[in-house]
Design a protein that fits this description.
The chain is α+β, with helices and mostly antiparallel strands. The protein contains 2 helices and 7 strands. This is SOUL heme-binding protein.
Length: 155
């Protein structure tokens, strides 16, 4: 499971054996019909803290983790509470799609990405009240106003 490998990485399973502070959000990107029998697959990203951005610690080879340097992008976001579960994730993604359909960004979602949407989770799994999650969808690109440069490195 990739999440376990990411946890090992931040706990010191990297070439300089350094612990890396946990950051938020934990981002899960959904890849439709990439799994067996046309089911959805997913990949998980953890943001690296600012001090690890310039020279990120390399993961141990056996973890089979690959860096995913994010380029400039514009993202439409819908915030929701509670635990992120399959049923409410799909509902929130549909609500975001409906909202986008009524906005200037209708028909501007990016098809260049290998995933359809992402779920950003901001809280520890041990927090039960006041949880914050978001559904993210790439829209348009950096040509839109208010989409300035903000490169972020993730694993």
């Amino acid at each position: 499971m990739k999440l376990r490998r990411l946890f090992e990485y931040i706990e010191g399973a990297n070439l300089n054996f350094s612990r890396i502070s946990m950051t938020v959000p934990v981002l899960t990107s959904i890849v439709p019909e990439a799994g067996p029998l046309h089911s959805s697959a997913y990949f998980v990203l953890l943001y690296l803290p600012a001090k690890s951005q310039v020279i990120p610690p390399l993961p141990l080879p056996e973890l089979n983790l690959k860096p995913d340097p994010w380029t400039t992008r514009c993202i439409a976001v819908r915030k929701f509470s509670g635990f992120a579960r399959d049923a409410n994730i799909v509902k929130e993604a549909e609500r975001l799609a409906i909202s986008l359909g009524r906005s200037p960004w209708a028909n501007r979602t990016s098809s260049k990405r290998e995933y359809a949407y992402s779920i950003a989770q901001y809280n520890s799994p041990f927090r039960f009240i006041g949880r914050v999650n978001e559904v993210w969808v790439d829209v348009g690109g950096s040509e839109l106003d208010d989409c300035g440069l903000n490169p972020i490195a993730t694993y």
